[in-house]
Amino acid sequence: MKRSRTSPLSHSPHSESNRAPHLSSLQKSVSPPPKRRGANGQDGDNPHPSKITPSDPKTSEYLDTWSMKLRKSILPASEQGSTPHLPIDQWVDLYRRHAHSNGHHFVIHQHDHPVAGPHYDLRLQFSDSSTVCWAIMYGLPGDPNQDNRRNATETRIHGLSYNLAETASLGQGSVIIWDTGDFQILPYRTGQDQPDTDDTSSDGGHAPAISESSKLRDAFQRRKIKVRLNGIRLPKNYTISLVRQNKHKPGTGTGTGKTSLKNRRRPAARMSPSPPTDPDSMSPPSPRDPEPKRGETTLQEETDLSDGDDREIRETNAYPGSFNTIGSVHGRTWYLRIDTVGSGFRRVKSRDGKQVWVRNGGATHGATRSIQGFEPFYVLGPEVERSVVTGRLGKDVLDDEGVQDFVPRRGWVPKA
Q1: Helix axis angle, 88-97 to 59-71, nearest 10°
Q2: Domain coordinates of the chain in residue numbers?
Q3: Which of 76, 112, 121, 239 could form a disulfide with 342 if both were Cys (CB 3.0 to 4.6 A apart)?
Q4: Distance CA 31, CA 121 (A)
Q5: pLDDT grade, residue 272 (50/70/90)?
Q6: Angle CA 187–95–232, to nearest 5
Q7: Which positions ≥6 away from 190 have C-beta within 8 Å?
Q8: CB 359 within 8 A of CB 326
Q9: 261 three-class SS
Q10: What are the distances in angstroms from CA 100 to CA 4, 105, 314, 334?
């Protein structure tokens, strides 16, 4: 198979003359599982990975299936550029260590959908079978001194086994494992707290007194999540904050969808969210990040699911084999940004009087401390970003799965 060579992952600012247009990536069902029935059907007891229902509880079987599939798909090191690589045996071991109720596995999928467009799905394990998921249009922010705010929109609850997925189809586009590892839930505090730099993660067989999955469920209910992602690609101690501002904000998938007459008559420009009250919680994203609208997911979901499945999934907001015991609501908006203090930065005044974030540590006052924080990085999209497991681009996955005539959505521009 012929591989096309591309530039390695870049960590330099990406210039853009025009901001991304209004995309539908957060208005559609961005990550449904493959069809359970239909013209293609399943291929017996050991189906092709692209036809596996992501949330099926037969996790061990699927781990074997995915690992065999991905092992054969790993690119030579010379073709992987500078993308960090997780050996397949370590990838399998990582998943097995967390395949229980106290597990805290995470994955970030890059999903290049033909209709919704490119986006990045953050999936955090909260039980032995299920993950809570957010779709992030521009990927995770990597520069604390740029606009690092993102909309993060809740999607369906997925089965834990879907964290293994790296596949493609004509209707769903390509999915690659952009990063994976485990996570820690840290106390959500305001003010200039010192960063917690203990990045040791608990082994699957030695659960802490309060498990990370329990902490996640609690933080999710409190609507304020501070999570450290211990991944392969993300920098050491990379920490983000997720905040859901309003419990019952109309029009964002938070329940009945009823809107008061006053709100219906209010001009759209005045419907933007007000700033959060916590001094260190994130501000609402800029107008470049459009908020999803309620009631615009039907067409895509009905295309991919049978009538019976569709009804049950809508009622539970969970794909078959997963369980929405965390109370996730499809289409609900959270605000995401880098937790700068937690990631190892401090704020100083620059020569021109502006407040900037700099890395902690180094030589200060005659003493030398280890440098914390990280150099800026930028997510550059499907044409550049590679899998940390196989080293493949999205188009390589399309080729490997025999997908022809895939037409990507145009107009996506990296957010630097």
Answers
A1: 170
A2: 49-190+204-255+275-339+375-400
A3: 239
A4: 8
A5: very low
A6: 65
A7: 278, 279, 280, 281
A8: no
A9: helix
A10: 40, 10, 26, 27
Give per-residue pLDDT as tens, 133-150: 999 999 999 999 998 899
pLDDT in tens, 287-317: 344 443 433 333 244 334 444 568 899 999 9
pLDDT tens-digit map of 55-91: 444 557 889 999 999 999 999 999 998 999 999 999 9
Residue that the structure tokens 């249009």 belong to = 137
Q: Model pTM?
A: 0.74
Q: How far apart are CA 134 and CA 120, in angstroms?
A: 8
Q: Which of 70, 32, 67 is nearest to 322 (CA)?
A: 32
Residue whose structure tokens are 């291929």:
43
- Burial class, 247, CB count within 10 angstroms (exposed 0-12 / middle 13-18 / buried 19+): exposed
Residue 352 burial class via C-beta count within 10 angstroms: exposed 0-12, middle 13-18, buried 19 and up? exposed
Q: Are 159 and 57 in contact (CB under 8 A)?
A: yes
Taking 3-state DSSP, the helix, strand and coil percentages for the chain, each rounded to the nearest 5, stand at 20, 20, 60
List the structure tokens of 340: 């700068």
DSSP code at position 320:
T
Place of tokens 């993300």: 234
What is the identity of the amino acid at 134?
W
Residue with tokens 């930028």: 378
Residue position matching structure tokens 């501000």: 283
Q: Is 225 helix (H, G, I), strand (E, B) or coil?
A: strand
Q: What is the mean pLDDT of residues 389-399?
A: 98
Residues 158 and 324 sit within 8 Å (Cβ to Cβ): no
Residue 313 half-sphere exposure, CB side, CA atoms within 13 Å?
24
